[in-house]
Amino acid sequence: MPSQSLVSVAILDDYQNVALDLADWSPLNNRAQITVFNDHVSEDAQVIERLKPFDVLCVMRERTPLTREILEHLPNLKLIASTGAGNASIDTDAAAERGIEVVHTGYSSTPTIEFAWSMILAMARNISVENQSLREGGWQVTLGTELAGKTLGLLGLGRVGSAVGVIGRAFRMNVIAWSQNLTAERAESKGVQLVDKDTLFSTSDFLSIHVRLSERTRGLVGAAEFAQMKPTSRIINTSRGPIVDETALLAALKSGQIAGAAIDVYDTEPLDPAHPFRSLNNVLATPHIGYVSRELYQTFYGDSVRNIVEWLDKTQQPAHG
Predict the structure, then answer these.
(1) What's the burial of 8, exposed, middle or buried (CB within 10 Å: 0-12/13-18/19+)?
(2) How far apart, in whole angstroms, are the C-alpha atoms of residue 54 and residue 177?
(3) What's the fold here for domain 110-285?
(4) What DSSP letter does each residue of 285-306 carry, written as one string?
(5) Alpha carbon separation from 293 to 124, 125, 288, 289 (Å, rounded)
(6) What pLDDT shows up at residue 317?
């Protein structure tokens, strides 16, 4: 079958090079030519140059934003197959104006819920520090912190936050929560104590962020909030980087205003190689892997194949070799 009759599909930002292994792409045999990109490019000009030939883009979450500026320079693009239930980094208005269809996949919060707890536990027991010491020939160098009896503060009590709270109670923690829309009824139904914002920041020993990024939540945690926290407190962000004022967080960490931070999300991703988060000894930093699990990737890529096949079935007759 001549290659020009194939739809060209680009799989973007497959950092682990697993996309083709975690789903059955054979339904696209003789219908699509698939190109996988394992690296990330961030400059608009680079993105446009790379993506210009493709009819279909399979994007992983929000790794490569598809802005109006970029979409207007992709003349062949007809379908964006995004992983996850939504993707705030796609300009859907610009896509619609250009007749580009945007489809999404299933999603599960389980990896993020479990990952948030891996961060809390790792910080409480200084696991990364002790592991590094052991690798370098050392032995015990820190004192851990027990969770029982401590206060877990939840900034947000949605699907992820409420599940994190359930686990906190299993560790016999005092679980409190606040967000801009949280009601007493919602908090009570999740077995969590509703408090005001000041109380959340001033009493939490571990403060975990679980709100969506929006204009209301951008910069929600800043210098004033860090000033209220105890010097023994730690903050965990597995949601979105810009919810926390990065400059204020760095200042609080460097001054000892708070004890530490576990961070999986950043203002700019991938994180700059010289960023202080990579080297501060009271920061546990990971490369936005909260949702990165084999099981969820299987859902992402499996659903993406089905989405592309359904789109092809709508727009053209299946090709035969």
Answers:
(1) middle
(2) 46
(3) Rossmann fold (3.40.50)
(4) E-SS-TT--HHHHHHHHHHHHH
(5) 23, 24, 12, 8
(6) 61
* Cβ atoms of 146 and 172 closer than 8 Å: no
**Global pTM exceeds 0.85:** yes
The residues pairing with 153 across neighbouring beta strands, listed in sequence order, are 176, 207
Q: Which CATH architecture has domain 3-104+293-315?
A: 3-Layer(aba) Sandwich (3.40)
Q: How far is Cα 164 from Cα 208, in angstroms, rounded to an integer?
A: 9
Under 8 Å between Cβ of 112 and 160: yes
Nearest to 167 by CA among 221, 112, 215: 112
Matching CATH topology for 3-104+293-315 and 110-285? yes
Tell me the pLDDT band of 3, cut-offs 50, 70 and 90: very low
Residues in the chain: 321
Tokens, residue 132: 């590094």
For the chain, domain boundaries: 3-104+293-315, 110-285
- On whether the CB atoms of residues 208 and 182 are closer than 8 A, the answer is no
Q: Judge contact between 178 and 199, C-beta under 8 A.
A: yes
- Token couple for 31: 């219908």
Do 165 and 172 contact (CB within 8 A), yes or no?
no
| pLDDT at site 57 | 98
State pLDDT tens for residues 200-218. 999 999 999 999 999 999 9
Q: Residue-wise over 116-151: b if at least 16 C-beta within 10 A, else e?
A: bbbbbebbbbbebbbeeeeeeeeeeeeeeeebeebb
- Active centre residues (catalytic): 240, 269, 288
> Rg of the chain over CA atoms, in angstroms?
22
Handedness of CA 253, 219, 62, 73 (dihedral sign): negative
pLDDT value at 1 more than 70: no
